[in-house]
Amino acid sequence: MTTDSWKCFRCNLSFKEESVADIHKEISMHSITKVKSLAV
User: Fold this and answer.
1) Among residues 1, 3, 9, 15, which one has the fewest Cβ atoms lying within 10 Å of its Cβ?
2) Residue 8: is it exposed, middle or buried by C-beta count within 10 angstroms (0-12/13-18/19+)?
């Protein structure tokens, strides 16, 4: 099973919730990429 997450490759941070990724994007001015990850 895969889940969607958001990643900032510049900071090497991953976010499970899009709202948190948006906050990071606004504060840091970094781009965020939606990725699919395997749920373990």
Assistant:
1) 1
2) middle
